[in-house]
Design brief:
Blueprint: E1 3-8, E2 14-20, E3 23-30, H1 36-51, E4 60-66, H2 70-87, E5 91-95, H3 96-104, E6 113-119, E7 124-131, E8 136-144, H4 151-156, E9 159-163, H5 166-172, E10 178-182, H6 191-199
Parallel strand pairs: 1-4, 4-5, 6-9, 9-10
Antiparallel strand pairs: 1-2, 2-3, 6-7, 7-8
């Protein structure tokens, strides 16, 4: 059995989750972005108390690595690294865009391509492209969305756009091959990929792992 702490502060809504293997045993959510830093450590303490566990029971810490909010990513990464260093635990870094893509693939709902989109400024998004096996087709990057976005991709097959920026895409992209899924996953969605990584001993180097900012500075809108 593995007790894994999951931390997601990449965007405007932050969450923490405690799981035994993949089963959630504690969860908290914060929707006020400017409070992520002051909220995080008390929330972690609360989910351990709720689950009847001690932080010393933890076997690994998983954290979203971005892209996303510059400040939010730094807050989450610093907390995850601090816990790992102090307790001698392995770190599991999970790309935010890959997490978003994996969260919308089910046996009933899939597509040839999944395109997660994180809201940045104006018509800009952070995005990447994955195929239906979650293989990365296009690396994470920043993109200004307009009516000419993704023409080649839309001609190749069905596409799911998912994330907190889909309303921007709906304004300019109209195609029969498109499905829009609004919203962002919480730390609960991290449990399955984190546990798979844990079983494979697929861990990040704590000293050298850094957030994936994509751009030098981005602060999500409140």
């Amino acid at each position: 059995m593995a007790i894994i702490l999951h931390i997601d502060t990449a965007v405007e809504t932050a969450s923490v989750c405690l799981a035994e293997n993949e089963a959630v045993i504690g969860f908290e959510l914060n929707e006020i972005q400017k409070e992520h830093s002051s909220w995080l450590h008390p929330a972690i303490n609360r989910i351990f108390e709720y689950a009847g566990k001690k932080i010393s029971d933890t076997n690994a810490v998983a954290v979203t690595t971005g892209p996303g909010s510059y400040t939010g990513l730094r807050v989450g990464m610093a907390a995850a690294k601090g816990i790992c260093f102090s307790l001698g635990l392995p770190l599991i870094g999970i790309n935010t865009l890959e997490l978003m893509a994996g969260n919308v693939i089910t046996s009933e709902r899939s597509a040839d391509f999944i395109v997660p989109v994180i809201d940045a400024r104006r018509m800009e998004v952070f995005t990447a492209v994955f195929d239906k096996t979650l293989k990365e087709v296009e690396k994470p990057h920043a993109l200004i969305i307009d009516e000419n976005s993704f023409p080649e991709l839309l001609g190749k097959g069905s596409v799911i756009f998912t994330g907190n920026a889909v309303q921007k895409l709906k304004k300019v992209i109209r195609h029969d091959n498109v499905l829009f899924i609004d919203g962002m996953p919480t730390a609960k969605a991290m449990t399955a990929p984190a546990f798979r990584r844990f079983r494979k001993n697929d861990f990040n180097d704590i000293a050298y792992t850094e957030p994936l900012y994509v751009k030098e500075f981005y602060q999500a809108r409140h």
